């Protein structure tokens, strides 16, 4: 295939230009036909037709580039369109209900606005690592049909304190430029900053600036703060959030549910039940790890079915390693 067509193809993808993309593929098909590569030409034509109903580049949202730290030129956040769904998350029923309700509520903001009620747009999620904070925020963004902006709070801290304040301002301005979900991950690093013995008042100003940004936020985005260490959060922080939810370690039933979703049809139900028992005390992510480890073992042994021994070995691998 001529280099120029390949370049056209990539350029068209970069611009999400459906028409240019199709023209480039057509040119490649004609060229392959001329070279008598009929099978390849036919396959390409078929692929182009199949994709025409399911893929439209023109519909792909163009996401604005996140702001940069002036000093290091590193992005202050990342932006993505997640595709995880809330019903794929294994959450305690009350938390699941809370998040579902929140999604519905955001869809009905106009009614609440008319009634003169303040919007609930600040969420705090806390709990041990691997129990679904980040993944639930991704699911929330998907359900709301909003892009997700992820910023690590410690990543906003510049070596120049003045720059940190400016980073925060830039991040919140960015999040206010549209309807997004803004995830402030590692939120506890703010609390830690307060305790920092080198604190000469400057750092305190930064912490207060974050609190003020959150307090004063009335833009179209939803702000979600997530932390593994709620104990280091300043007591003054909690009341600034409209929704506060704990995502704790899973109970046996939740572990079972994760194993079942991944291992369904590959192993005996009885084995799943006993495996879940063995994982009590570990996070959701560990159950996921164990399930994939078991399947990997069966695939490498060229079996379709996960045997009890393979499951046992997977549990051993999971419980022997460190999770937190
Ligand atoms: N509650 C959950 N339900 C389903 N999968 C989960 C859950 N919690 C964690 N996982 C799985 O473990 C991985 C890590 O979880 P994550 O949400 O990043 O944890 P956290 O942000 O709380 O540390 C996720 O990508 C997901 O696949
Ligand atoms: Mg996380």
TrEMBL record:
Organism annotation: Cryobacterium roopkundense
Family matches, as InterPro entries: AAA+_ATPase, AAA_ATPase_domain, ATPase_AAA_core, P-loop_NTPase
Family annotation (PANTHER family): AAA-FAMILY ATPASE, ATP-DEPENDENT ZINC METALLOPROTEASE FTSH
Record domain AAA+ ATPase: where: 119-251
GO molecular function, one term: ATP binding
Pfam families cross-referenced by the UniProt entry: AAA (PF00004)
Name of this chain's protein: SpoVK/Ycf46/Vps4 family AAA+-type ATPase
């Amino acid at each position: 295939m001529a280099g120029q067509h390949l370049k056209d193809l990539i350029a068209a993808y970069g611009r999400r230009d459906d028409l240019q993309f199709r023209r480039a593929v057509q040119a490649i098909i004609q060229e392959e036909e001329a070279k008598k590569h009929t099978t390849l030409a036919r396959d390409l034509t078929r692929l182009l037709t199949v994709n025409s109903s399911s893929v439209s580049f023109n519909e792909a949202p163009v996401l604005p580039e996140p702001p940069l730290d002036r000093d290091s030129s590193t992005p202050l956040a990342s932006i993505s369109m997640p595709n995880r769904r809330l019903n794929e998350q294994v959450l305690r029923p009350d938390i699941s209900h809370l998040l579902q309700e929140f999604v519905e509520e955001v869809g009905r903001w106009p009614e609440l606005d008319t009634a003169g009620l303040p919007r609930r747009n600040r969420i705090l999620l806390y709990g041990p690592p691997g129990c679904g904070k980040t993944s639930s925020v991704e699911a929330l963004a998907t359900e709301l049909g909003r892009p997700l902006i992820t910023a690590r709070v410690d990543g906003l801290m510049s070596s120049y304190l003045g720059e940190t304040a400016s980073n925060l301002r830039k991040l919140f301005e960015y999040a206010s430029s549209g309807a997004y979900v803004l995830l402030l991950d590692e939120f506890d690093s703010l609390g830690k900053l307060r305790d920092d013995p080198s604190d000469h008042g400057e750092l305190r100003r930064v912490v207060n600036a974050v609190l003020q940004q959150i307090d004063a936020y009335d833009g179209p985005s939803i702000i979600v703060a997530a932390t593994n260490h709620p104990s280091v959060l300043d007591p003054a922080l909690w009341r600034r959030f409209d929704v506060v939810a704990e995502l704790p370690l899973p109970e046996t039933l939740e572990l079972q549910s994760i194993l079942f979703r991944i291992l369904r049809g590959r192993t005996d139900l009885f084995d799943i039940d006993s495996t879940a028992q063995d994982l009590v005390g570990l996070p959701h992510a560990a159950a996921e790890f164990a399930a994939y480890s078991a399947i990997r073992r069966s695939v490498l042994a060229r079996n379709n079915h996960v045997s009890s021994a393979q499951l046992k070995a997977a549990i051993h691998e999971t419980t022997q390693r460190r999770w937190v």
